[in-house]
Design goal:
Distance between the termini: 32 Å
Largest sheet: 6 strands, parallel
Radius of gyration: 17 Å
Number of strands: 6
CATH class: Alpha Beta
């Protein structure tokens, strides 16, 4: 557990975002261990439609999206209770990112229905004190996805990851809901390199960090 004086006391709830394979969960777990924080992980494995969605996006998009929307909402509601017991909360997703997938995958009529529900849920939820966006190249994302070899992700195509990456970039380069740290993570290894993780951790808890900042660490070839 890190000493309190080495952290920014305003950051009690940190959410980590990025495309599939960017390392969100791995980074969340490492920060959690460093801070002895409460960890909130996205429950993607409980979505019964997700594997079908990866093989037939058009047919299963709406069921997949609505399951995630309700499941994420229920999980995020619990943060109000967690706040009473945990000094730090680390989450490997943001509720707002749900709309990235909705606009990418839903038909016009499905999106209209989705947009009649989403604002009612979003307005009652707690916002993070900081969002970390792990921006990574498609090559690195595909490398990470292949390396971890999850059965549910084997049908993922490069073209879908490219679409998703473009949507994430478009969204976060216009993001203004909370303080944001955009990290160029294509050529760093914060999972296996203590130096890479320490450097990123220091950027997260910098006292003089602005509302929106970009972190381009010294890179080395990973793939």
């Amino acid at each position: 557990m890190i000493e309190k004086q080495n952290t920014n006391s305003d950051l009690r709830y940190i959410a980590i975002e990025g495309v599939i394979g960017s390392g969100k969960t791995s980074l969340a777990k490492k920060i959690k261990d460093r801070l002895d924080a409460k960890l909130i992980l996205e429950q993607f494995e409980t979505n019964p439609f997700l594997e079908k969605f990866y093989t037939d996006r058009k047919r299963h998009a709406f069921q997949t999206q609505m399951f995630f929307l309700i499941n994420r909402f229920k999980q995020q509601q619990e943060l109000h209770q967690e706040d009473l017991f945990s000094e730090y909360l680390i989450c490997d997703y943001t509720f707002e990112k749900d709309r990235i997938f909705a606009y990418l995958n839903l038909s016009k009529d499905e999106l209209n229905l989705y947009e009649s529900i989403y604002p009612l849920l979003a307005r009652v939820l707690r916002k993070p004190d900081l969002v970390i966006f792990l921006q990574s190249s498609v090559d690195r994302l595909m490398y990470n996805i292949k390396k971890r070899n999850r059965k549910i992700e084997r049908a993922l195509t490069r073209s879908y990851i490219e679409e998703l990456s473009e949507s994430y970039n478009h969204y976060f380069f216009r993001y203004s809901s909370t303080p944001l740290l955009i990290v160029n993570s294509s050529d760093i290894d914060f999972v296996n390199s203590d130096n890479d993780f320490d450097e990123l951790f220091k950027q997260v808890f910098r006292e003089d960090r602005g509302f929106t900042e970009y972190f381009n660490p010294e890179t080395r070839r990973i793939i």
